[in-house]
Amino acid sequence: MGKVAIGAAVVTAAAVSAAVALVVRHRMRCSAKWARVIAILKEFEGKCETPIAKLRQVGDAMDVEMHAGLASEGGSKLKMLISYVDNLPTGDEEGLYYALDLGGTNFRALRVHLGGKDKGVIGQEFEEVSIPPHLMIGTADGLFDFIASALAKFVASEPDEYHLPNGRQRELGFTFSFPVRQTSISSGSLIRWTKGFNIEDLVGEDVVGELTKSMEKIGLDMRVAALVNDTIGTLAGGKFHNQDVVAAVILGTGTNAAYVEHSHAIPKWQGLHPKSGDMVINTEWGNFGSTHLPLTEYDQALDAESLNPGEQIFEKLISGMYLGDIVRRVLLKMAEEADFFGDTVPPKLRVPFILRTPDMSAMHHDTSPDLKVVGNKLKDILEISNTSVKVRKVVVEICDIVAYRGARLAAGGILGILKKIGRDTVKAGENSKSVVALDGGLFEHYSKFRTCLESTIHELLGDEAAETIAIEHSNDGSGIGAALLAASHSQYLGIES
């Protein structure tokens, strides 16, 4: 009996010893894997750093590229497109104007009633219309006949008090959010389609001419007074409410900036200089590139796998289309190299753009003690269950790094524009204010992004200059802004109503 007991004791001790060794090895493996997670995080954080000195270099590079783009066509990655908008709203505009906003699978028709000085926008109405899919790949006549017909119905609903005097033509601002080579304030030829449209017979044609032809067919007496994009519309909307507005920036799914330039500072301008002496420039700053931009392996992979490799690098760092996917790519590396979410890589984590920026924002703003929102987003979107608070904290840190880098780089870009127009410093004896109008879902809804952008601009300018610069939200530039530009380019300007 004694031997058996001793043997059993020996076997039990050996089993315990093996189990302990197994636990120790497991812990060591887990510890090594966690160390790898932290190493990936810290390396990413280091590569994304945007110290003030680097942001000033980004601003300087933006300024240099703006000069080059204004000097000659193709002189810079920044297109610096001449918009032919030489009169921005003064706030005195009055009367009834229409806008047509075409930029995707829906279009909007708007009616805006302006009241003149101190009254602003008295009333506005709009109607949204879905474009049937077959018209998006059909003919120019098919698309514009459909739009003109919907526009005519909308005009027919015009309240009696809005009716125009006899003989007065209705005027329209047309926001056309596709690449266009503009040839005047009210004409421009389509360069190429995007966003699922492919109407071959419209490429190279004047989009205003095609719309006008369709309106004339059905007897709709309306003149397109201004052809614009949404960034210039945002500038117009901002200027209408505040005459100190000098530039506009869109930070949404994509990004762009426009600003007011002196016409004499545009060497490539061939026409007569406008009476105002000003010209709005559409920078197309999403295509800005510089060696000073802090690119990581994740950005390079995203760019290589994109539809436009080597293009829109700035946009891929700062806009809502891409931020969530950069977060996903970092999480994927952690899952592949350090079993961040367990022994297998969650399949959904390999799906490009599955993690959208609004989801990233929700996780970044999670203030619950156990980061419940983060846990739910990982489960609902990526099908990753039972994550620890420790894991969730790392996810929030990645969101933090990506959002703050984007916001600070956007601030560096804005510094470049202010530098180009000499508004980045306070000049002796001058007390002028400069307002930058901002719009876009990223700026409007991602509050940590917005707060970081604003504080970084203050940091870059310094206390004294920052006192002269303001960031203001300018809503619905693609709609109301277009109507305002129709008003400021009306054929009836200076004629008594």
From TrEMBL:
It is an enzyme of class 2 (transferase). Keywords: ATP-binding, Glycolysis, Kinase, Membrane, Mitochondrion, Mitochondrion outer membrane, Nucleotide-binding, Transferase. GO terms for molecular function: ATP binding; D-glucose binding; fructokinase activity; glucokinase activity. Its EC number is 2.7.1.-. CDD domains: ASKHA_NBD_HK_plant. It is found in: Mitochondrion outer membrane. It is a single-pass membrane protein. This is Phosphotransferase. Pathway: Carbohydrate metabolism; hexose metabolism; Carbohydrate degradation; glycolysis; D-glyceraldehyde 3-phosphate and glycerone phosphate from D-glucose: step 1/4. The keyword Cell membrane does not apply.
